[in-house]
Amino acid sequence: MEHVQIGFWVIAGLVVIALLFDFMNGFHDAANAIATVVSTGVLKPHQAVAWAAFFNFIALFIFQLKVAGTVGKGIIDPGVVDHYLIFGALLGAIAWNIVTWYYGIPSSSSHALIGGIVGAAIAKAGTDPLIGSGIMKTVAFIVISPLFGYVLGSLILVAVAWICRNKTQRRVDKWFRRLQLVSAALYSLGHGGNDAQKTVGIIWMLLIAAGVTGTNDPVPNWVVVLCYMAIGLGTLFGGWRIVKTMGQRITKLKPVGGFCAETGGAITLFLATSLGLPVSTTHTITGAIVGVGSVRRTAAVRWGIAGSIVWAWVLTIPCSALIAAAGYWLGRVVL
């Protein structure tokens, strides 16, 4: 691919904006990792975000950079990437995150970024640079990841109910209040491992386009460390508006339900990250929470709330793509 002449300060500024998106990703998606553990009373909010932020960062040492490779090279042709495209993609993702955070809607930061990349690429060169297989896998997992979360959350709760069938409710709650610390840690590992790599991928795209690193070179270590630090700090600050929606408005959870939802979500995220699939942690945990709630009884799930969340999922990619397309043309003026 031909390298684009990009000034040092433009590169530095775009890296900072990418890290800001990563921070907002953690801030926006903190609710996914801590909503159940807070709503069940196992941890206080500030304890929960510290716990989640720690494991977000520790994920750096657990997962390979397969998701970063998908985002960096599997969504659009790297040859079309320049600083205007990166600016537009980040602007689209950040703007959509702010809108959904303000209204307390648990949408996907991941799909906002993918939508931003696609929208900016189309604004620059039409649909030719789009890599259909990578986009289709990402779109397919809008359905697959919550479905996996739903099925796993349901099955784990059924298994737990059978194992604990002769135990008192008080004893079960005591056990699962402790086990929820483990499930929250596992979910936070999956959250950090999948989501931080998306920002790694977009910074990698920028560095390749600018000729700072080669197409076949590994991602610089400083990029990886900064991205995991940024998402951990974002989680530490928390996304309190969304915690209430995820932890209480969809369905009421007890410690055993919180454990099952987090464990089902964590398994889904571990699998997706190992396959290099950029999935939505929001979709995954929502599906798991609905699955746990529906095992108790269908009426335990507030399907109206769940339905409005699904609409936000459907709109995320096209809306962030439209904003990113405008951001691309803005970038050509200001950069």
Distance between the termini: 22 Å
Total helical elements: 12
Q: Describe the main β-sheet briefly.
A: none
Proportion of helical residues: over 70%
Radius of gyration: 20 Å
Task: Give the low-pLDDT segments.
Answer: 246-251
Beta-strand percentage?
Answer: under 5%
The succession of helices and strands, N to C, reads HHHHHHHHHHHH
Give the averaged pLDDT, no decimals.
85
Shape: elongated
Count of individual beta strands: 0
Protein structure class: mainly alpha
Describe the 3D structure.
By secondary structure, the chain is mostly helical. The chain has twelve helices and no strands. The chain has helices spanning 8-39, 45-58, 66-73, 83-102, 109-125, 132-163, 169-209, 221-237, 240-249, 255-274, 281-296, 303-334. Helix 1 packs parallel to helix 4, helix 1 (8-39) packs antiparallel against helix 7 (169-209) and helix 2 runs antiparallel to helix 8. The radius of gyration is 20 Å and the shape is elongated. The two termini are 22 Å apart. Residues 246-251 have low confidence and may be disordered.
